[in-house]
Structure formats: C-alpha cells, structure tokens
Design a protein that fits this description.
This protein has 203 residues and is an all-alpha fold. The chain has helices at residues 25-53, 67-92, 96-122, 132-164, 169-198. The longest helix has 33 residues, at 132-164.
Length: 203
C-alpha cells in the first residue's frame, strides 16, 4: 500500500529560485543567442573574403579605412573586459556594492566605444551604397554596433535597477548573463577589426 508523501517532503520553499551558470535557463538562452549571432558574423566575414577573392581591386577605387579610430576602439573594447569580468564576479558573490561599481565602469567603457564608433564610420573612406566592398564593410560594422548598443542599453537598465532597488537574487543572475554576452561582443570584434582594417591591406 502506497503511503502519501508527508507535508514536509513536499515543501520546496527552501529551494533557491535562481541559479548561476549552466543551471540557469537564462544562461542557455544567452548561449543560444551567441551561437546564432556568431554564425551570422562568421557568414558576413566569409562574404567579405569571397567578394575580395573575386575582385581585381580591393578596396574598390577607394583607400582602406583609416587605422586610428578602429585601433583605439579595439583597445577600449579589450580593456572593457576587465570591469565586465569584475562585475560578473561581484554578481556571483551577491556583492551589490561591487556590482554597482563595476557595472558603472563597464557602462562608461561602452559609451566611450559608441562615441569612437561614430568616428570609425566617418573614416571608412567608403559609402555603404558605393560598391560591394562598401556594403559588406558597413554591414559588418553596423551589425556589431547594433549588438554593442543593445548591450549598453541592457547595462543601463541593470545599473538603474541596482541603484534604485529592490535587489533580488535574479538581478544578480541578470548581471552575470549580461557579462557573458559582453564577452561575446568584445571577442567577436577582434576578427571584425582584422577583417575591416587589415583585410583591405593584406596581400
């Protein structure tokens, strides 16, 4: 004869309502988004080199992009991984004060990057509709800018929530997953930088 489970055995009130890392559905959702977007970036980069291999002149009747602002942005982007990593660590330690500090610093890096990105677009030396070269370069830079702007907006929301409260455990998870996506935005920029700025100079 089966015995009914006790009231105590059915009590799940003490179980955590959130988890970090691969135990979280948000982590898997973020990873899936990274996989999809990473594939799109890879396809656009492949398109760049496909067009380059079928062109007698590359870039087409224009000078390569100026190196200054793209290189500055690369340095800013790589440096931004440090406060981003510290924000993630603070979130996973449930350190609200640390999260407020490092999310604010990471946000400042993002704003600087967006400002320099405007200068990048101005020094590409080509219009988006002037040639296949111009289209693929603007697509790559524009697509990455959209990802960056989206993550900066997410970081603004998280910063506001941590400064105004209330702060729940799930908010710490949000910061951790936002940091994971920022890693993606940072590291995907490196092949894009070399494609745009050196793909027009190599060979």
């Amino acid at each position: 004869m089966n015995r009914a489970p006790s009231q105590r055995s059915l009590d799940v009130s003490r179980l955590p309502s959130y988890k970090f890392g691969h135990h979280s559905l948000m982590w898997w959702g973020t990873l899936g988004m990274i996989a999809i977007e990473g594939t799109v970036f890879a396809l656009v980069i492949m398109s760049y080199f496909y067009l380059r291999s079928h062109s007698s002149a590359w870039p087409m009747s224009v000078l390569p992009p100026d190196l200054l602002w793209g290189t500055v942005n690369t340095l800013v982007m790589v440096a931004s991984a440090v406060p981003n990593h510290l924000a993630k660590k603070a979130a996973e330690a449930h350190d609200a004060r640390g999260v407020r500090l490092w999310v604010s610093v990471a946000l400042a890096f993002g704003v600087v990057f967006l400002g320099v990105r405007v200068l990048e677009f101005a020094t590409l030396n080509v219009r988006w509709d002037s040639s296949a070269y111009g289209s693929v370069v603007w697509t790559l830079l524009g697509f990455h800018t959209a990802h960056l702007a989206t993550d900066v907006a997410d970081t603004v929301v998280l910063a506001v929530l941590f400064f105004t409260g209330p702060i729940t455990g799930k908010r710490f998870v949000d910061v951790s997953e936002n940091a994971m996506y920022w890693y993606f935005v940072v590291w995907v920029w490196l092949p894009i930088y070399f494609t745009i700025y050196w793909g027009a100079r190599a060979w």
